[in-house]
Every structure is written in C-alpha cells, then in structure tokens.
Amino acid sequence: MSWKRDRPETPRGYHHGNLKEELVKAALGLIGEKGPNGFTFAEAARMAGVSPAAPYRHFRDRDELLADVAARGFQTFEAALSRAWDQGRPDPETAFHRLGRAYLAFAHDEPAYYSAMFEAGVPLDASPELRAAADRAFANLRQAAEALIARLPQGKRPPALMMALHIWAMSHGIAALFGRADGGRRPLPMSAAELLEAGMLIYLQGLGIGPETAAPQAG
Amino acid sequence: MSWKRDRPETPRGYHHGNLKEELVKAALGLIGEKGPNGFTFAEAARMAGVSPAAPYRHFRDRDELLADVAARGFQTFEAALSRAWDQGRPDPETAFHRLGRAYLAFAHDEPAYYSAMFEAGVPLDASPELRAAADRAFANLRQAAEALIARLPQGKRPPALMMALHIWAMSHGIAALFGRADGGRRPLPMSAAELLEAGMLIYLQGLGIGPETAAPQAG
DNA sequence: CAGCTCATGTTAACAGCGCTAACATGGCGC
DNA sequence: GCGCCATGTTAGCGCTGTTAACATGAGCTG
Questions:
Q1: For helices A111-118 and A62-85, what crossing angle results, to 10°?
Q2: A41-48 and A19-38 helices cross at what angle (nearest 10)?
Q3: Is the torsion defined by CA of B145, B146, B147, B151 positive or negative?
Q4: Which positions on chain C have an atom < 7 Å from some protein CB?
Q5: What is the mean pLDDT of residues B102-108?
Q6: Quick one: closest CA in B to A194, which residue?
Q7: Domain identity same for A25 and A84
C-alpha cells in the first residue's frame, strides 16, 4: 500500500479522526506549491495518509474542496481587512491606507488562499458560506468608502458602492498583476504596496479627499 | 476509430495539412466554453479530427499550446489597443477613453483569449513571442500615459510607468472581477465600462488632468 | 457489558487524461 | 522513380477523478 505514510507522525487506526481539516491543510499547501491547477485530490489524500477515495466522505468532489479552501480564505481575508480598518480609527485616511496594505499583505503572504479565492475559477455561489464570507470581506471596503465619502460636502459625494468597487478593482488588479510572492508577471521599479498607495492617493485626490495641495506624486 | 469525425467536412488523407492552426482554434473554442482548466489536449485533437498523439508533432506539451494561444491573444489585444489609441487622435483624452473601452471590450468579446492570457497561469516568459506581444500591448498604455502627462506642467508630472501600471491594474481588476461575459462574480448596478470610465475620470482628476483643469494646448 | 448502527475508512474498477515509443504514410526534393 | 523525414497512427504507461461494494470500529441503546 504505497499511499500509506512510511512513518505515520500520528499513528491512527482505521479511522482518521480529523481528516477533513487535514485535507484542507494539504490542499492549501499543494495550491501554494503548484498553483490551483496542480493541486490534486489524490495527492491531498496521500499527504493525509488515507486512500484516494477517503476524501469523498467529506467533499462531494474536488471542486467542493477547492470551494471550502476559498471560503476559509475569504474568512481570514475578512478578518485581516476588518482588523486593519479597525472601524476607521484613529481617522478614516489612516485606517484606509492600513486597509490597502492589509489587502496586498494578504495576497503576498497567503498566495495559496488568494489563488483559491481569485484564480481557481471557483464561482462565488459554490456555497452559501463562500458567498457570505466574500460579502463580509467586501463590506469592509464599502464601509471604508462610506467613511471617506462622509468627509465630502453633500453635493460632491460619489456613490459609495462605486467607490468601493474602484478600490477593490485597483487592489485586485495590482495584486494579480504585480503583487504575488514570485514578483508577479513583470519586474517593477516599485513595490506593489507603493504602487497601490500612490494609486489610491491619486484617486482620493480626484474625489477631493486628501492633503489639499499635495502634488500627485506620492512618496 | 471513434475519434474520427463521422463526416469530415474537409476530407483529408493521412496528413492533415493545417493541423497546428486548427488545434489553436479548437483550443480557443474549448477555453471559451469550459475555461482554461477544462481545456483538454485530447479533445482539441478530437475536434481537429486527428488522433490524440498528433498534437505532439506541433506542440511540446499542453502548456505550449496554451502559451501559443496566449501569445496570439496578446497580439490581437495589442492590435485592438493600438487601433483604439490611434496615436492619441484627435486628442489624448478622447483617445484615452477609447483605449479603456477597447480594453474592456476585448475582455468581454474575447473571453477565451483573455482567459488564456491572464487566468490560465501561463508565465509571460513561456516564449519570446508571448513576452514580446505582451510588452507591445502594454506599450500602448504607457504611450497613452505619456501623452496625458505631457499636458501637465513640468513640476506635477508623475512617472509615466507608474501611471501606466495604475491604468492597467484598474482595467484588469475591473475586467477580472466584473467584466466577464457571464456578468462577472457579482451583479452590479452599472456596467464594467461605466465603472472603468468613472474610475479613470476620478484618477485623472486626481492627477490634475480633467475637464476643469485642462490646459489649452497650442498645437 | 453486548449488540447494532452508521459515519468513516478501504479496495477494486472504470474512463479519461498527458505523454512517449515504435511504427506507418505519403509529399517533396534528388 | 526513389528515398527521406515531417507528420500522422497505434499501443501502452502511470496518473487522475469518481463510483460501487465492502470493512471497521466509535458510540449509542438496552
């Protein structure tokens, strides 16, 4: 039985006891190593020390495991964004920039999660938990947008949803194109974080939020 | 021989004559239908009416076909962007917005190409042609950035590369998150094109390029 | 504690995939 | 007309996802 671990770290009997968790961890590791396509149901089972058919007791198919990983990714993503935003303390601008850095930090530090969430082709409604976690993550961006908009005079307020979408799009665009651990698809003269920071400063300036007479060049 | 077409549209002998082209077309169709992961070397061969091993006479492996599709995608992408930019005529602002619409139009109208280019995980240096085509496509964005920057007074000019990266990031972010033919990952109250247009207007406003501050340009 | 149940594991099997080696065909240059 | 070799085919390897049939034993029930 070549699939058995040669020296089981945690000897077990017929039943594993914690297989679902271990499969998710194995999947996360494999996605991190070889990308969401290289990830294999069979290999995850092998890493967990069970037969190739065992995972089917916990996930309908490979896609459901992927969706589970993505959902967990959105949950920790949401936690990170929420912690960074910290309800806009001490002031919305400071908290907002912290939020942007947290976004990129997540993409950089958790490439496996980010991959499962945005590159594996998992549809957002693969499961209610996934959808809910993604919505909660996005809610942080929207909340930040609202707090910043509140500083504008009544007549000049853009729709908060639109602004949140812009923030998300630029963050995701930078993360996807330049922000991965491998340096991204193209070498850059500046870091992804700096790029996002500068882009967001310009965008906010365009809305009328920000240092009044600041030059567009960000430092 | 079940892989043979029941009624070959173009009857052929032992040799196909145009297999490489037909494989690329088949791959493009399959990627469009089932995404870059669903695409299969064997099925492309089936569609072309040849045996599953025939494609290996034209591509080292599956990844090389994918890279070829991506390279062709970047070539037609570059052509579309170049046509839209049209050397900045009649004026950079007009041409720039045309460029943005062309970007989204490509992502929307050629989902198979866009998928192969940005979602299939093909590394940009998979082939020199790929890298070159991608660079030429990006050069259009950079050229547009430079033309717009030239309208700013000397002291307030951001780096053109940075600006081009911001444009690319926002375009790609919107295309990836909301701009696909299936409506994207999330229903929106506005179209992707409108979202990008608004985002770019705000961004340009932040740089000091906008309706109000447009400097009369002697030309 | 005996016994039953059923969640969770295993084995065996199928079809399909990427890929390779060995062989077949026939278009084209000599 | 002949032979080379690009291009096709066949057969087969090991892998994958997935299912069906069977095995185990943890935990409830009496």
A1: 110
A2: 140
A3: positive
A4: 7-13, 16-22, 25-27
A5: 94
A6: B162
A7: no
